[in-house]
Give the backbone structure.
Amino acid sequence: MSGHTETHQEESFWRKYIFSIDHKIIGLQYGLTALVFLFFGFCLMMMMRWQLAYPEQPMPWFGWLFGESGIMLPEMYNSLGAMHGTIMIFLGVVPLAVGAFGNYFVPLQIGAPDMAFPKLNMASYWCYFAGGIVMMVGFFVPGGAANSGWTSYPPLADIATTGQTVWLFGMVLLITSSLLGSINTITTIIQLRAKGLTWMRLPFFVWAQLVTGFLLLLAFPPLEAAGVLQLMDRLLGTSFFLPSGLVVSGEILNVSGGGSPLLWQHMFWFLAHPEVYVLILPAMGIVAEVLANNTRKPLWGYKSIVYASTFLGFMSFIVWAHHMFMTGMGATISAFFQTTTMIISVPSVVILTAMFISLWGASIRYNSAMLFALGFLPMFGIGGLTGLPLGIAASDIHLHDTYYVIGHFHYVVAPGTIFALFAGIYYWFPKMTGKVLNETLGKIHFWLSMIFINGIFMPMFVQGLAGISRRLWDGGASYAHATETLWLNEVMSASAWLLGLAQIPFIYNLIKSMKSGEKAESNHWQATTLEWTDAPSPPLPHRNFEIIPEVYRGPYEYSVPSADKDFTPQSEA
Amino acid sequence: MSGHSVEDIKKSVKVYIGVFTALAVLTVVTVAASYLDLSFGESFFLALTIASIKGTLVAGYFMHLFTERTAILAVLGLTFFFLITIMFLPYMAFTDQAAI
Amino acid sequence: MEIPYNVEERQDTGMFNAKLGIWLFLASEVMLFGGLFSAYVFLRMGDVTGTFISGSSELNVPLATLNTLVLISSSVTMIMSWVSLKLGEQKKFKQYLGSTLFLATVFLVVKYFEYTAKFHHGIFPDTSTFFAIYFTMTGLHMIHIIGGMVVIFYFLVPGSSMMNTESVRFTNRIEIVGLYWHFVDLVWIFLFPVLYLL
C-alpha cells in the first residue's frame, strides 16, 4: 500500500469497480447485488401467491416456467418457499443492511479512511457473491432447488433432492462471508474511531452495526458446524440427524442411525434467533439517524437506546428454543426459554419507545426518508407485539406453524426492516452518488408500499388464528375449517402484485436521479454526523476525507439553544 | 507482548520451556489416568480437568492471555459465556425431555 | 491512504488492528468447535447402544498421544520463532519456524496412518455416530492444521523478505500466525481426551 493518493488515479476499470478494496465501492457492490436478490426473492413470492389464491390453475404469462400445463407442482411450491426465505434473509436483507450500509457508512461515520482490512472486505463480498451464485445453481440441478424450508429441518432435509446439497454449500460460503465481514466491522469500530470519538459519541447506527457484528461473529459458526454435519449426512452417509429405524417410503432407511433431528434444530436456531436481531438492529440504527435528522432535535434517550441494544444482542443468544416448544420440551426448560423471551422484549420496547418520544414536540420534515422511518415504527411495533403470544408455550402450541407466524415475522422484517432500508436509501443516496432522489416519486413509493404491504400481512393474522398451516400448497383449500377465511388469499395475492408494481417508481427514481438528478450538496440534509459534515458527496475514493476530522461532541446536537444554526456538527470545536 | 524488553523476553523463554514440560507431563498423566479403573463420571471429570489445565497454560502463556488487553479479554469472556450456553442448554433441554 | 494502526498500537486500546482481528476470528472458531462439541455431547447422551464407548476403544491411543506431544512441541517452536524475531536473531527464527512446519507434517503423517488403518478395518464415517463425529472433528482440525501450514510456509519462504523491509510489521504477523497455531493446538488438547480417552 503506498502512501500516495495519486497512484490511485491510474487504477484500471477492474481494480476500481470490480475487485476494488475501497469500502465505498464494496458497499455499493453489496447494495446492488442485494437489491437484485431482494427483487428476485420477491418474484418467487409473487408466483407462490398465484398458487395460493388460485390453486391448481395455470399461471398466466409465467406458466411456461412450470412445464406445459402451467400449473405449479407441490415440489416446485416447496422449492420456491424455501428459496424465498433463504434469498430474502441471507442474500437480500442482511447483505443490504450490514454489507452495504455497514460497509459504506461505518467508516464514514467514525472518521476512518477505510475499513481496517480492505482486502478482507473484498474477499467477504466475493464470498457472498459466490454463495449467491451457488444458491442460484440449485434451481438447475435435478429435483430443483432446496425444498425443505429455509430452516432445512432433518430428517426431511437429509433425504431431500440434490438441491439441498447445493443449498448447504451456498450457506457455507455465505457464512464465511458474514464472518469475514463481522471481524472487519468490529475491528474498524474499535480501532479506527477518529480522535475524540468516544463510545458515547458514536452515532447509534455505528452501535447497531457493532452489536450486529458480534451476533454474526458468534452465532454463525455453530450453524456452519451444523451445515458441515448435514453435508456429511448427505454425502458420506453418516447419521448425525437421522434416528435409528427411520422409515422412508415404507422402508427402513439403511443407515447406522443413532442421530437426532433435534440436534439440528438447536444448532440452527442458535444462529437463527440472533439472526432476527441481525435483521432488525441495523434497521433501528438507520431509523435513529433519519429520525434525529428530520425531527431536528436530539434523539431521546440516546444512552438507554445504546444500552438496550447491547442487552438485546446479549439476550438474543439465550432465547432460541422458543422456536421449539412443539418438540416435546419439558416444562422446566420451556419455562426458562419463555422467561428469557419475555425479558428480551423489554429492550426492544425501550428502543421503540425512545424513538416515538423523539417525535414529541418536533417540527418534523416529512421527506421520503422520514416517511419510511416513521412507517417503520408502528410496523415494527405490530411485528414485535404479535411475537409475544408466540413466545409463550401455551399460545404457541395453537399458533405454531400457522400463517400467524408468517404474519408476525414479516411485519418485523418486511414493513419493518425493509422500510428502514428504504429510508436509508433515500437518506444516504445523495451522499453515495452526489445526486438527489425525486421526492414526489419517493412519496408515491412510500404510500403505495405502505398500503399494499399491510394488505399482504394483516390478513395472515386472521388466517393464522383460523388455524391455516403455513406450508400448504393450496393455501388451505383442503381445510374445512378454513373456508371462511379463504377469500383473504385473493386479497393478499392482489396486494402482493400491486406491491410489486409500487416498486416501479422507486426503480425509475434510482436510475433517473443517478443520470439526471439534481446535484446534492455535501451536507444535503444539514446533518451533524461526520459523513455529511466532513466528506464531499460522494466521498473521496480510498480516503474519504480531505483531512481526517476530530470530534468534539455527541452525534445528535440539533437545535442547540445558543447555536447559530439548528445543527451543530460533531466536528465543530 | 510487543512492548517487552530483551531481558523480559529472555525471562519468558524459561517460562515457555516450563509450560512445555508441564504440557508434556500432563499429557502422559491423562493417558495413564485413562487406564485406571474409574467410573465414567470420575474419568470424565479427571480428563476434562487435565485438559482445562493444559488449555489454560496454552492460552495464558503461549497466547499471552494472562497479560492481554481488556478489550480482547472482554470479547473472549463473552465468547466463553456463549460457548457454555451452546454446550449446556441443549444438554438441559435433552435431559428435561427424557424425563417426560 | 494508509490504514491507521496497521502496524503501531492505538493508544487507548493498546492493540494493532490485526491483533484484534485474529482474536475475533479465534472467538468465532471457538464457537465453531463449540458447536461440534455440543453435538458430541448431545449425540452421546442419546447413544443407547453404546457406540461411543465401543468406538473410542477402537482408536489408537499411543499414536494419538504421540501426536499430542508433536503438536505441543510445534507450539513451542512457534513461540520460540517469534521470540527469536523479537531478539533480532533471524537465522534462529527460520530454524524454529521450519521445525514448526516439520512437526506439523509429522502430525499429518501420523494422522494419515491412523485414518488408513481405520479404513483398512472397514471403519468409515458412516459406521456409527461415534465415528461420524470422530472423522468430522479430527478432519476439521486437520484442515485447520493444513491452513496453518500454508501460512507458515508463506512466511518462511516467499513472504520472508518483509523481515528486512518492515521488521515490526513482520514480527506482528508472526505473532498473529502464532496465536492461530496455538489455538489449533488448544483444540487438539480437548479433542484428544474427549475422543480417545472417554
User: Anything to note?
Assistant: Chain B has two domains: 1-68, 69-100. Residues 69-100 of chain B form one domain. Chain B has a mean pLDDT of 88. The longest helix of chain B spans residues 6-34.
